[in-house]
Amino acid sequence: MRNDTLARQIGKLLATKKLTISVCESCTAGMLGAAFTSISGSSKYFQGGFIAYSDTVKKKIVGVKARTLEHFGAVSAESAWEMALGVKKKIKSDIGIAVSGIAGPGGGSKEKPIGTVYIAVAMEKTVTVKRFLFKGRRQTIRRSACKHALELLREELRNV
Asked: Where are the beta strands (DSSP E) in 77-157?
């Protein structure tokens, strides 16, 4: 399914439920926000977001704890969790969604190979984090991360 079609479905769900959303993106570098804003009328539910590519931005702007980054790394369930909660809090939206990963071609390790991506969705009372391992080149990994972030969000919205 194309991301714009999925984003359109999510937009309808958000509008129906009268919920707002914000994004915090690392490896997708704005793709997720672009998927939302490609839909006419998305300003009713899409509040904005951060491209938190560096650890400094994750800490100073988004509110990820230094000890989280030091102990678990930027690409971790813990960091994605704090990114989703941080953007939700900073922008004052109902939902925060975060994506952090290693798109390559460099940066991977045995524990976190290229294609490792964590996606977190912070709702009113819950935070869901999932780990993915995507295959392919940099752009393929980034597109897959965006698509799966939208799919996870749709799943979470259906449970509200």
From this structure: 95-101, 116-122, 127-133
